[in-house]
Amino acid sequence: MIPPLSTEITTPEQVKQHLHEALAHLGSLGECALLGYPNSGNLGDMFIWLGTALYFSEQPQTQLKYVTTNADFSAVEMQQKIGQGAILIQGGGNLGDLYITQEFTESIIEQYHDRPIVILPQTIYFKSQAALARTAKVFNAHPNLTLFSRDHISFSIAQQHFPNCRNYLSPDMAFHAAALPGFTGQANPNGLIFYLRRWDIELDQDLDAGINNLDQKFSVGDWVSYDRKWKIGQGKLSALERKLQRQVDGVPALMVRATTQLFREGWQRGLSTPQEWLARQTWEQAYSYKSEFKTMDKPWMHERALSFVHTGLYQLQQHRVVITSRLHGHIFCVLLGIPHIFLPNSYHKNKAFYETWTSGIPYGRFVEDASELKTNINQLLELSS
Question: Residue 81 belongs to a domain with what CATH number?
Fold first, then answer.
C-alpha cells in the first residue's frame, strides 16, 4: 500500500508533515516511558532517538518521565516515575528476527497489559514464519498496542499479522528534524565522492562489488563512530568496568567510566579531530535544543544523541556526492540536500522506504543495478557542480 501521492513528495518538510499526521493519532499520553536508547555506535539510531525526543518535547500533553536503554531497564524505577503510564518503544529497523532487541520488546508487551504501549516507526522483517507467528501471538494478545510501520511492505505485514493492533503508516522519526535550525546545509562542492558502507548482515553484496569496480575516485567508510571504535552505551561501559575490576583489584567503577568517557570525548571526539570539535561546539551553542531536554528524564541521554547526530551531519557534509547502503545515510542526505545514491540492503527496508516516502526527492537516486551506478553518479556530479 503505497501512499497515492508518494511521487509528489519532493521535500523533507513534506515527509515531516506525513510523520506528524500519523503521530497525531496518539493524542495525549501524559507521563510516559521511552525505552530503547541506542547502545551502539549507529548514528542512525541516535538520529531516531533525537527526532523522537525533539518531537515529544513539543507535545505538552506527553512527558517523557522515564527513559532508558534496554540493558538498564528497571521495572521498579519505571513504576516510581510513571505509575501505569504509557510505554513508548524506540523505532528503527529491528522489529523481526534479525536482531535480539525483539526479545526485549516482546517481554515488555507481555508483561504490561495494564497500559497503552506504542511501537514508534519500525521496519518489519521476519526470516522465519514461526518467529512471525510467535510475535503475532504476543502483539495480538495486548489490549492496547499501537504500531507505526515506516514503509508500505511493513505496514501490509502489520495489517495482516497484527490485526488487533492499531496500525499506522508513518515515516521515520528522524524526519521530525526537517527544517529545524541546524538540520539544513549542503554538500562540499570540492569534496570527494563518499561511499558510506554498512558492513553487517544487511549489506547487499552484489551492489557492494559493483561499487568497487567503478573507475571514479571515492573514499569508503562507515559512520565515524564505528570507524573510530567509540565506546558509547552504558551497557558497554558497565561491561568494561566489570572486566577491569576482575583484572585490577580495587579499581573504582566511576574511575573506569570516567576514563573511558574522557578518552572518547577528550581524544576521539576532541583533540584528534579539532575542526569537527569546533564545528560541533558552535552548532550546539547556536540552538536551544538542550534546554528542551531538561523537562525529560536523563537529559544527558538526549544531549549525547544531539552531539552524535552532529557528527553524522558533519561527516556527510564534507563530501560532494554520497553513496550509501544505510537508511539514515539516505535520510541525513535528504535533510541536508546532499546529492546521493541510495542502495538496497539485504531485504526490503531501504527500497520500501524509498518507494513509500522519498522517491520524489530530486537529489536522491535509488540504484539496484550496478551497471547504472556510473551514469547516476555522473548526473549527480553535474547536479552538485
Answer: 3.40.50
